[in-house]
């Protein structure tokens, strides 16, 4: 049975500091697609000889969810209060389960900063069930070469999490999810199948898609009803898109900046614990 399109959402322009981004979640039309809370698409030019020690995002906290980053161009050097230091480049993914608290920084890799170029990423936030929000945090970097891929009908499907066409993504999640990165040449056709119990969305970076008889344009997000298992997709141009799907958590969500909890009291406690240094400490070393 085919899935029905529930919404087609245009991104909204926002600023993170001085950087303009495209925000697909949340918007004025839709707050979240449980368990997915936020989607940012960022594409900026990094000048040659950029100081990698000062650019990007400096140390900041998270608790209660997983911030995930897909790198499309450039590189990100991740450092965190657990002692991890890792550079993830084009085609790679960094997945952080922030659990009971982590401090991390995200800056351009030194070599990339020297030569400059386009930095393009998508970052999205995946909520954690209440029972896992106080777990020990962990960090999982996944390189492009270690990301399993399926070549089918002039398209490449990279499986990040979950199982798809008998291929299992390397990153383990706290709730059932299937997350795919897909590139397709013009004319490629795909029949994408996702469990009917999952919430599901597609975000289009560029190119053009037909989903059934509906045209989808760059920087649009398509949200589907939970009424079927199949999405028939055709690439009208060479295109890149992501598919995020997962079993909804169905719990209260109270967010404040970099924290996602289940109550106002938990948010207040988190702020206090961060001020006391209990979410971790990161002293960057280069």
What does this entry look like structurally?
With 286 residues, this protein is mainly β. The N and C termini lie far apart (53 Å). The chain is built from two helices and 24 strands. A hairpin with a 4-residue loop joins strand 7 and strand 8 (85-89). The chain has helices at residues 110-115, 264-275, and strands at residues 5-10, 12-16, 19-25, 36-46, 57-62, 65-73, 75-80, 85-89, 93-97, 102-108, 117-127, 138-142, 149-152, 155-161, 163-164, 167-168, 177-184, 189-193, 199-211, 214-216, 220-224, 230-246, 254-256, 259-261. Helix content is 6%, strand content 54%. The strands form five sheets. Strands 1, 13, 14, 17, 18, 19, 20, 21 and 22 form a nine-stranded antiparallel β-sheet that branches. The protein has a seven-stranded antiparallel β-sheet with strand order 2-3-4-11-6-9-12. It has a four-stranded antiparallel β-sheet with strand order 5-10-7-8. The relative contact order is 0.20.
Radius of gyration: 19 Å
Number of helices: 2
The total beta strand count reads 24
What structural class results from the helix and strand content?
mainly beta
| Alpha-carbon distance between the two ends | 53 Å
């Amino acid at each position: 049975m085919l899935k029905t399109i529930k919404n087609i959402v245009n991104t909204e322009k926002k600023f993170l500091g001085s950087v303009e981004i495209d925000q697909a979640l949340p918007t004025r039309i839709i707050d979240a697609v449980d368990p997915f809370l936020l989607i940012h698409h960022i594409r900026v030019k990094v000048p040659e000889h950029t100081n990698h020690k000062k650019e990007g995002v400096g140390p900041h906290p998270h608790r209660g969810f997983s911030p995930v980053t897909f790198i499309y161009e450039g590189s990100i050097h991740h450092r965190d209060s657990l002692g991890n230091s890792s550079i993830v480049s084009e085609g790679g993914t960094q997945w952080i389960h922030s659990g009971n608290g982590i401090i991390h920084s995200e800056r351009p890799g030194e070599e990339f900063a020297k030569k400059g170029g386009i930095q393009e990423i998508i970052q999205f936030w995946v909520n954690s069930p209440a029972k896992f929000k106080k777990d020990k945090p962990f960090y999982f970097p996944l390189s492009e070469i270690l990301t399993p891929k399926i070549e089918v009908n002039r398209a490449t499907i990279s499986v990040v999490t979950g199982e798809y066409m008998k291929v299992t993504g390397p990153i383990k999640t706290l709730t059932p999810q299937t997350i795919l990165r897909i590139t397709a040449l013009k004319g490629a056709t795909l029949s994408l199948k996702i469990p009917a119990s999952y919430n599901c969305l597609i975000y289009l970076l560029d190119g053009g898609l037909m989903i059934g008889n509906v045209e989808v344009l760059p920087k649009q997000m398509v949200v589907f009803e939970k009424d079927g298992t199949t999405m028939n997709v055709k690439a009208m141009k060479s295109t890149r898109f992501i598919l995020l799907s997962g079993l909804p958590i169905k719990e209260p969500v109270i967010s404040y900046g970099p924290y996602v909890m289940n109550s106002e009291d938990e948010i207040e406690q988190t702020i206090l614990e961060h001020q006391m240094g209990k979410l971790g400490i990161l002293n960057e070393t280069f």
